[in-house]
Structures are given as C-alpha cells and as structure tokens.
Amino acid sequence: MTERFDCHYCKETLFGKKYILREDNPYCIKCYDSLYSNTCEECKKPIGCDSKDLSYKDRHWHENCFHCFQCKNSLVDKPFAAKEEHLLCTECYSNEYSSKCNECKKTIMPGTRKMEYKGNSWHETCFICHRCQQPIGTKSFIPKDNQNFCVPCYEKQFAMQCVQCKKPITTGGITYREQPWHKECFVCTGCKKQLSGQRFTSRDEFAYCLNCFCSLYAKKCAGCTNPISGLGGTKYISFEERQWHNDCFNCKKCSLSLVGRGFLTERDDILCPECGKDI
Q1: Where are the transmembrane segments (predicted)?
Q2: How far apart are CA 239 and CA 216, in angstroms?
C-alpha cells in the first residue's frame, strides 16, 4: 500500500504536484503562499513562491514593483537611497535632496566625499585655497571675506607681524603703542612675565609689570621704605625730596596722622606741633 503524501495544511495529496518544504513539512503552493508569502510594498499583493522577492529593511517587493518612487525606473541591481519610506535612484535622490557644491554649484552625489563649513558644502576637489588654488583637504584654513585660505597663504597675504618675534599673528594678538604683538611676546622688560590682561606701565617705551616698575624706578617711602608707585590714584606726601605714603605720614612720637596738618621736623623725623613744642 502506498504511503500518503499530503499538504501539511489542507491535507490534499501532493503526488504529482509542486510543493514547498518548511520546517520539514510539505505545503502545496496555494497554502504556502497564503500562509507565508510576503506582501509587496508597492502593489500590496502577495509575493508568491514563483516570484522573486526583493527585500530592504524588512520590506518586500515584487521584482517588477521595485522601482524609483520619482522616475519609476527599476532599482534591481542598482544603487538607491531611502527617504521618508520612499526608495529613490541616486540621480533622483541627488536632484531632490543632495547638497550643491558652493564652488561649482553642481550636485554632490551620495557616497562622494565632501567638505562642510558653516552650512556650506564643497566637493573635496573644489574646496581649495583662494590664493594658491591647492585643495585644502583636512588641513587648517582661515576664512576671510567669503573666501578660504590655507594658513601659509593667509599669513603671507593678511597676517600682521609681531613686533617682537617678527612672525605672523593669526590669533590672540594685542596692540600696544599702535603696534601688533603676540600675547606670549608682550612681556615685562624686567621679569619677562606676560602682561596681557595685567596692569602695567612703561618707561622709556619699555613695558613693565607694576612690581618691576616699582622696584626699579619708584621712590621709597621715608616711613615704611616700600616703593610709592603713584599708580592707580595712590596718594602720597612729598616734602624736601622725601616722600611718604599717606598712611605713613604720621608723627614719629604719637603716630598722629599729619596729612593736611601742620608738622615740625627733627632731623629725619616728622612731629606734630604738640610733640615738637619742646624742640
């Protein structure tokens, strides 16, 4: 007696018929299509086992339905791009969505290397220095007046030279006596510390920090012997080639402040009228 060979789902005999095995179970074509075939994204009909099933990201198409959303040309065996659930050939995608080169105004095709800066895009070969016309690539560049320059060309054409080191100033420069300096070159003549952002003064056209200036040039207080800078509104008293800080101009004996008062002198000392009445 011959063993039966039936469809696993409808139980109809499969002798002399086409069938498909799935998980070791045989199915007639009709049952297999109704149970397991994918639905085409384009025509919404099942993709039968006798049709080619093209898939992309868990979506499926008949071979004849797999075409560009825009121009309807077939995408079978061709590169394509996806935008908002739609498939587009590279030409339609480029015309619709790809950025345009800021230099040649042509489309930058998908997959092509491009350069971007402040919302603008260039073909790699179009992103060049305005002066030497060489591609900038990944090298540093400096924009000026809507044009881009490689650093050497910018320095040759635009950068000011530091008074101290004679090298170009590209960033971080300062101006002193209407001359340009690098921040790191503008230093105290005495201690060589940077003066940028610090209080300083000058003598004979040389810049000094306050400490060095006071140490080198300021007169010494006759009371405390510390320098009197005279800077920043500091008040001091001067008498017969001697100077005192306001706070140091006091009676030698009773320490009464003599600022704005009469006083007497005894050798190098100053005295209030009361302490000096017996002189």
Answers
A1: none
A2: 22
